[in-house]
Predict the structure.
Amino acid sequence: MTSVSRPPDERVLSRAALLERWGRPRQGRLVFTNGVFDLLHAGHIEYLFAARALGDALVVGLNSDASVRRLKGPDRPVNPAEDRALVLAGIGCVDAVCVFDEDTPRELIAALLPDVLVKGADYRIEDVVGRAEVEAAGGTVRTVPLRPGRSTTSTIERILRTERNR
């Protein structure tokens, strides 16, 4: 089921291509997670590998630039979606990346219906977007631990403090 031997640019898929490749019916256990993944750090890597360990393939839904701006403000993202997608697709545990423009990945999740929907342990399972759709289709929702003190927001804050103190 895995496609990690394919070049990263071949693992960044449109929604239609994602559904064609990873939609139901499928073999194996498909894991899905989503996020902004701006300024990739060790916490992201640990999280993605933990998510991938829950199944046979990992699909990452990636917020578009417009979606990130709506959610995090006009100064984000730091890196454009095209770059963030390619970097994610280059990580060995990621089988596919799909950029979505909505504020949440609910529509993408409802179309894909992964076997396992994963978020970080800072979420309560009952609050995970897409939970109802995944569970109704027989899937499960899981949370995985996050590395304390690692976040893109805290990294940006440290950079800005350093710049102000120069």
In short: The first helix runs from residue 15 to 22. Strands lie at 30-35, 57-63, 96-100, 116-120, 140-144. DSSP finds seven helices and five strands in the chain.
